[in-house]
Amino acid sequence: MEPTKTIMKGVLWNFEKNKFDSLKDFKKALIRYNETITGDPFKLSLEEPFLLKPEIMVQYAHWDDVEEDEVEPSFLIKANDKKSFSRVELLFKVHNEVCEQLKNEDHKFFEGFDLWEGENPNYPETSLYFLILGS
Predict the structure, then answer these.
(1) What is the pLDDT of residues 19-33, one digit of tens each?
(2) I need a surface site. Which of 57, 61, 62, 118 has the fewest CB within 10 A?
């Protein structure tokens, strides 16, 4: 499978924080993090419909001490409105799914999502995005 489209490359985030209880708290932390790193006001729209899909699969890689190898788990997330994701909703849901596995990893910095084409046998009608992580 080859990546065809990268999304959300302009958003900075670190998955070392604990899970967030609310989207509102996550949004505040996301804006604060971006403004601290860049030194500029955060101008990207976070709440408008962005990814026009009711659900997506997300896959990511991390080191598994039990397996003593890198593993690539995936998970399904669904849009709150059953139509589309905003940037903040998408990253909020992904953060809460992966933060416990990534908080102590070297590669825990968000660098976007790659859309993968090809067969997804478990969910053939659902887009698969690979979470891009950096150190």
Answers:
(1) 999 999 999 999 999
(2) 118
For residue 25, what is the DSSP state? Answer: H
DSSP letter assigned to residue 107: -
Q: Is 99 helix (H, G, I), strand (E, B) or coil?
A: helix
- How many other C-beta atoms lie within 10 A of the C-beta of residue 84? 16
The dihedrals phi and psi of 94, each to the nearest 5 degrees, come to -65, -45
> What is the rounded average pLDDT of the residues 78-82?
97
Nearest to 56 by CA among 120, 8, 133, 134: 120
Please say whether the beta carbons of 107 and 28 come within 8 A: no
d(CA 106, CA 117): 28
Closest to 59 in 3D by CA, of 41, 70, 74, 48:
74
The pLDDT of residue 64 is 85
- Strands, E, within the chain: which ranges? 3-7, 13-14, 49-51, 55-59, 62-64, 69-71, 74-78, 85-86, 109-116, 128-134
% of the chain surpassing 90 pLDDT: 81
DSSP letter, residue 47: S
